[in-house]
ABC transporter I family member 1 (Momordica charantia), 229 residues
Amino acid sequence: MSLRRPQLPRLLLNQVSCMRNAQQILRNVNVSIHDGGALVLTGTNGSGKTTFLRMLAGFSRPSAGEILWNGHDITESGVFHQYKLQLNWLSLKDAIKENFTVLDNVQWFEVLEGKQGGSMPAIELMGLGKLAKEKARMLSMGQRKRLQLARLLAIDRPIWLLDEPSVALDDDGVKLLEYIVAEHRKKGGIVIVATHIPIEIEDAMILRLPPRFPRRMTLVDMLDRSDIS
């Protein structure tokens, strides 16, 4: 009888610490996320949720520890190139092209991904089917968020990093968000959400970021503000 080796987590945070503006946000965090898993980052505004997401996306390095994808450190150049192709990033900056139609805004990203056929179904699922030919500049804030989510669906990458995805959504929009997150996880996808608004995500791990306080002014700060040349 042979014993199976335990499956490696898809993402592993090993003793990870994170800094912002010379202030520590998190210290020695250990989290393992397998396929179909979800992690919710909560905390007040300014607690560092976006900073933490950016670190997971590889835009910045941990101040200590390591982030492993399939057992490999994402900060290694060869690994990062492959890792970033797994990521779907949704931020508060929507990157919507105002003079493109709703459909074009999704198809443009889908074509860049080398895919086709997913744009219109994604738009319809997000309740924007009747607006597909409208210019994006005509959309409300909630509709723009739905457009972002439609783009997320059409690109269809396995790891979703969502920064305040429920902002500007009405109740129906939040339910749609919860639905697509659940469906993505059923397919083995991973979802990591930063939010200060409760979102229903079944069996999600919760990581609460403590509130941050203004850091003390350092000698460098005082010299920068002085008139000494």
Observations:
- The first strand starts at residue 11 and ends at 20.
- Helices lie at 49-56, 77-84, 102-112, 119-125, 141-155, 171-186, 219-225.
- Residues 95-156 form one domain.
- The chain has two domains: 1-86+158-229, 95-156.
